[in-house]
Amino acid sequence: MWRALGRAIRDWRNARLVDPIFQRRLAAFPLTRPIVRREAAALFDVVAGFVYTQTLLACVRLGVLQALRAGPRDEAALYATAIQGVEPITREDFALLLRAGAALDLFERDDKNLWALGLRGAALLGNPGVLAMIEHHAVLYRDLVDPLAMLRAAPGTTALANYWPYAAAAAPGSLERPAATAYTALMSASQSLVADEILDAWPMRGRRKLLDVGGGDGTFLRAAGGRHSALQLMLFDLPAVIAIARERFMAAGMSARAEFFGGDFTADMLPRGADVVSFVRVLHDHDDATVARLLLAAHDALPRGGELLIAEPLADTAGARRMGDAYFGLYLRAMGRGRPRRREELARMLRVAGFGPPREWPTRVPLQVRVLTAERR
Ligand SMILES: C[S@@+](CC[C@H](N)C(=O)[O-])C[C@H]1O[C@@H](n2cnc3c(N)ncnc32)[C@H](O)[C@@H]1O
Question: How far is CA 255 from CA 8, 222, 225, 227, 234, in A?
Fold first, then answer.
């Protein structure tokens, strides 16, 4: 009954809101005016989002945020720094960009007429992973310039599929190192956002050996090893990525604690010996059939009582639905494979593979990643 009432109220609301005269009345009425203003601003953000992202990209490419890290600068000095080593833009266009960035809270101009970092600009500088993603989004937006063309594109023909070559490769195991270098570096840079969230949320409690599957260059594994000095580390990824990872572990002085396994998890078994298997930002990259296979492979690799860790952004996350359903929904579609899943969907797939019900470990910012564990039965 309550659901039927909810639907009736929604239909009544929508029938009125599509009427411009009703909208004007809402805006004129003092009690509803604040709601109208808030909603109009939110709707404008949805309409204008691409302009904001491109303003941000221009500012990042000109190094404006980075140039303000050391403190406020006057506009002429900032301009001189920004155009060094890049094809210049005019001073007028630079001023236009700064004003646009100020409207987005990236910068602010103070009472001495100096430019300083704004709240969001300062927060961005503290997240090198996000800066790397802003530059990376240029590839995604090439596909999204014509969203319907992207949705009609055959798998493997988009710019993003080219960036993530394993998504469309018939034999991902034979990818060469140059094909894996850019995405592996991006994953490592953006892993800084994720590893601390996971390791703060999930108590590893007496676990002995962690196998990180699709672990890239091992950034997450090294972070886990850094927190738990007795933990032994196993890394599984494509052979081209494992070659990069070996160098990273060597540089970090952690090679002796790690075992490396190059292979293709759509075709090969996972190595045994670990009591925890993790998939960090891996499952949502793959279609259901591959995820089902991966969960069975993890079940096979783990002993009874072993633990499976899944960490990735999920669909239908309260307070972060835009990230799961809108952003990752379209991102993964452009990549050509995978989808964000709801917790209940993962729970069902885990049960089928022989795991117990997942337990969620709340993260501080569920926008970036949610953390689930399940026991191997
Ligand atoms: C989105 S990245 C995530 C990397 C890392 N877990 C992280 O969060 O930074 C997905 C990883 O899965 C690996 N991968 C994709 N397909 C694979 C396959 N068929 N076999 C083994 N690894 C694969 C990729 O090489 C990549 O390192």
Answer: 62, 10, 11, 16, 11
